[in-house]
Design brief:
Number of domains: 3
CATH class of the largest domain: Alpha Beta
Radius of gyration: 33 Å
Largest sheet: 6 strands, mixed
Order of helices and strands: HHHEEHEHHEHEEEEHEHEEEHE
Structural class: alpha/beta
Distance between the termini: 65 Å
CATH architecture of the largest domain: 3-Layer(aba) Sandwich
Number of helices: 10
CATH superfamily of the largest domain: Periplasmic binding protein-like II
């Protein structure tokens, strides 16, 4: 018993005659008759009576046909599922990103991928970088955008990007008239610093030490939007990533900080686990989104640089 034999039998039962079944299958009548005869020999009982050259189903044929229909329904359903998977209409992609990425980069990338692949179901959460790394390691998400720890062996970096930190302050701050802010400008100036555990804090402290400046830190906070909020209220100047200040509009004055302080982030996946087609499609859309806006970051190949 094989699928060709069962298909021939199914067409005979559906169309009523061997002639119509042959036409539906685009084969000859003798070919259909031979397939039915082979099927009867295989199962051990007749499916068709053939009085006067006709072909009439036996009582057993009707019982057998019910099961054949169930089988083909299952095959048809499998074919439908396969088509949904192929066209990304039956897919889920789980993403987590650090706050900085969630304001502009992620919405743009998600907008693009939803336009191209509306059948993909996306889940996006915002977490700190350490939390994102843990979610990736435990394979609870497909892709993370975060600042990774180079010592981690349970995640894999797909791409790394570098932006340059900016200096933000209230529009009426005395330093708002400067074209750029240098470490010497920060002497005795109240500052809002990102948390001491962040790379940005380490870079800033090293930069100030090399310039012989001791920052007057009045508050530490995390993430960047918290520092921006405090800066907008006049609490102090903050050194943050270049993307977050955009959501504050004219509530903040933004100036370059020189020498440049890097603000890096990486696109990461679980190690040893291939990406789904949905995750791959999102990753490609994300790369195009970042490449389309210079302030989103430039690719770097050595994330420890």
């Amino acid at each position: 018993m094989n699928q060709k034999q069962l298909t021939a039998f199914r067409m005979v039962m559906r169309h009523g005659t061997i002639t119509e079944a042959a036409r539906a299958l685009n084969v000859s009548q003798p070919a259909v008759s031979r397939l039915i005869a082979d099927l009867e020999a295989s199962i051990g009982f007749p499916l068709l009576h053939r009085p006067g050259g006709k072909a009439l189903p036996t009582r057993e044929a009707y019982d057998f046909f019910q099961e054949v229909e169930r089988m083909f329904y299952g095959l048809d359903r499998l074919g439908q599922v396969a088509e949904e998977i192929r066209t990304l209409n039956r897919a889920v992609c789980r993403i987590a990103s650090m706050p900085m990425v969630s304001f502009e980069i992620l919405p743009r990338a998600l907008h693009g991928i939803v336009m191209h692949h509306p059948g993909i179901e996306f889940s996006h959460d915002v977490h700190t970088s350490p939390r994102i790394l843990d979610l990736l390691a435990s394979r609870q998400i497909d892709i993370g955008i975060a600042q990774t720890d180079p010592g981690r062996q349970d995640v894999e970096v797909l791409a790394a990007y570098r932006t340059d930190c900016v200096c933000v302050m209230a529009p009426d701050h005395p330093l708002s008239t400067r074209e750029a802010i240098h470490p010497a400008d920060l002497h005795a100036v109240p500052m809002v610093a990102l948390n001491f555990r962040t790379l940005t804090y380490s870079y800033l402290m090293r930069c100030c030490a090399e310039a012989g400046v001791t920052p007057r830190i009045v508050a530490e906070t995390q993430p960047s939007y918290s520092a921006c909020s405090l800066a907008a209220l006049g609490v102090g100047i903050a050194i943050v990533d270049p993307i977050t200040p955009g959501i504050f509009g004219d509530r903040l004055c933004v100036r370059p900080f020189l020498p440049a302080l890097p603000f890096d982030y990486q696109v990461i996946k679980p190690v040893g686990l291939s990406m789904s087609r949905a995750a791959t499609a999102f990753y490609e859309e994300l790369r195009e989104t970042i490449a389309g806006q210079s302030h989103f970051g430039r690719p770097v190949h050595n994330i420890s640089a």
